């Protein structure tokens, strides 16, 4: 089937231009100057809309077992919500825990996703136990499974934590096989001390989750990861969910020295604060307990992160989508903030939330598209199949209406959460129509695709590797 997306403004890496996009089957066949396309195909009228590549969320945790429970979005509910919000590919984290075989962890994630996803998906692999076997497995995943990025944790001792020696070994392996090391950069052992001391003082409210994870412990871990990567012959390093000015400073310094260091941030760190959300009265703040934590609005974190996005010291915006309901899940931490499952869900809203950067003149249109689609594709080896409107690429396309309005609420969202971290937000812009591999899967906020249509995307090495 051929479709012509006509009359819109295509947003490419070099900026917006007028063009008509011809879709043939699952891919983009051609882009014509206005009025030059052949007659015949079905027309989608894109007049007044931006035509952008389907967004890629490079950091999600669907149905992840964590914190004594499991993330509340399944691959079914989470990828459906993502689709409605303009995201056409996710990269989720398969997990190997200490003592488990890496390939068994991967097989478990393939089993969870089989016939469940509404959009295409890839996997990163969490290595929870670095040893001879898991290092060997990293080679096999890169060579044969399309998995070219591995997440390690400097936080969560006793759960996913790796010590510095383990981190160095995994980085050396990644330097050899070309993979990217993704780092959760927070000093876990030091945080555990602060958490214990806070609880002993009777400080049990959700806000203490943030106060026991000061930005210095993110900055220190970020710096340590950067130097360990240097020792591993400049292994490619990607800092996940960067939240704080001092951590950004470490990344900026490394990049100024030409180092192979990248970072992402998430919408929650660009907009929300420790005082306004995490510090909400009573147990309300539990809704925003995530790690890294929300930072103080009295400091310059949010402005610094927006600037980092503009200057490319932050290359990507992902969600770290890890939703938990208040009922029975977040509630586990009433009376002890350390028992609140860590995570926020925003997979449905990232495209709209980042568009506010354009509205508020913090980002250009091209930079908006880069941070939510093109750079994640290039960073994680899916380009040019994904992340760009170009002949030969998958026809993953979003028509975005800059004159529309989006109201976010638990009453209307599609994620499996009993609250919204963005309740009542009314913002400019609206996802109008979403195509995934040439199929219209959402239109006017209504879902039109089907469970199981999403395909696994094996990934190549990062485009940014040097
Ligand atoms: N942080 C979260 O908030 N949730 C899942 C894991 C993580 O690192
Ligand atoms: Zn993390
Ligand atoms: Zn995460």
TrEMBL record:
GO MF, one annotated term: metal ion binding
Encoding gene, per UniProt annotation: hydA
The entry's keywords: Hydrolase, Metal-binding
Residues bearing PTM N6-carboxylysine: 151
Protein name stated in the entry: Dihydropyrimidinase
InterPro entries for this protein: Amidohydro-rel, Hydantoinase/dihydroPyrase, Metal-dep_hydrolase_composite, Metal_Hydrolase, Metallo-dep_Hydrolases_sf
Family the UniProt entry places it in: Belongs to the metallo-dependent hydrolases superfamily. Hydantoinase/dihydropyrimidinase family.
CDD domains on file: D-HYD
NCBIfam families: D-hydantoinase
Gene3D superfamilies: Metal-dependent hydrolases, Urease, subunit C, domain 1
An example Gene Ontology CC term for this record: cytosol
Presence of the UniProt keyword Metal-binding in the record: yes
Residue ranges of every copy of the Amidohydrolase-related domain listed in the record: 50-440
Required cofactor names: Zn(2+)
UniProt modification remark: Carbamylation allows a single lysine to coordinate two divalent metal cations.
A matching Pfam family: Amidohydro_1
């Amino acid at each position: 089937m051929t479709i012509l997306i006509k009359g819109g403004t295509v947003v490419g890496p070099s900026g917006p231009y007028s063009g008509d996009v011809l879709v043939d089957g699952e891919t983009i066949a051609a882009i014509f100057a206005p009025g030059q396309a052949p007659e015949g195909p079905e027309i989608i009228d894109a007049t007044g809309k931006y035509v952008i590549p389907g967004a890629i969320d490079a950091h999600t945790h669907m149905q992840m077992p964590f914190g004594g429970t499991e993330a509340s979005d399944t691959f079914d509910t989470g990828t459906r919500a993502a689709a409605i919000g303009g995201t056409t590919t996710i990269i989720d984290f398969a997990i190997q825990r200490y003592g488990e075989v890496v390939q068994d962890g991967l097989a478990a994630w393939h089993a969870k996703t089989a016939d469940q996803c509404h959009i295409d998906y890839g996997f990163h692999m969490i290595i929870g136990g670095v040893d001879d076997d898991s290092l060997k497995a990293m080679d096999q995943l890169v060579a044969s499974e399309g998995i070219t990025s591995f997440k390690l944790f400097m936080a969560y001792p006793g759960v996913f934590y790796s010590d510095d020696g383990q981190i160095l070994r995994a980085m050396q392996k990644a330097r050899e096989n070309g993979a990217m090391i993704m780092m959760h950069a927070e000093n876990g052992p030091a945080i555990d001390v602060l958490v214990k001391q806070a609880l002993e003082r009777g400080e049990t409210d959700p806000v203490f989750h943030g106060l026991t994870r000061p930005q210095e412990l993110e900055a220190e871990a970020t710096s340590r990861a950067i130097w360990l990567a240097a020792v591993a012959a400049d292994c490619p390093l990607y800092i996940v969910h960067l939240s704080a000015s001092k951590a950004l400073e470490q990344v900026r310094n490394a990049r100024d020295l030409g180092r192979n260091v990248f970072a992402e941030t998430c919408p929650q760190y660009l907009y929300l604060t420790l005082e306004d959300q995490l510090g909400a009265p009573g147990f309300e703040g539990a809704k925003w307990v995530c790690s890294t934590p929300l930072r103080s609005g009295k400091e310059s974190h949010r402005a610094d992160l927006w600037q980092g996005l503009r200057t490319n010291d932050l290359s990507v915006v992902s969600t770290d989508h890890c939703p938990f309901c208040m009922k029975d899940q977040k509630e586990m931490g009433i009376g002890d903030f350390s028992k609140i499952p860590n995570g926020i869900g925003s997979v449905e809203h990232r495209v709209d939330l980042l568009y506010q950067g354009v509205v508020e003149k913090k980002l250009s249109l091209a930079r908006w598209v880069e941070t939510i689609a093109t750079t994640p594709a290039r960073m994680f080896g899916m380009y040019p199949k994904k992340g760009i409107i170009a002949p030969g690429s998958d026809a993953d396309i979003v028509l975005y209406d800059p004159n529309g309005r989006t109201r976010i609420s638990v009453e209307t969202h599609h994620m499996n959460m009993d609250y919204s971290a963005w309740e009542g937000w009314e913002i400019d812009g609206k996802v109008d129509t979403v195509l995934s591999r040439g199929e219209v899967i959402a239109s006017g906020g209504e879902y039109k695709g089907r469970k199981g249509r999403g395909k696994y995307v094996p990934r190549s090495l990062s485009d940014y590797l040097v």
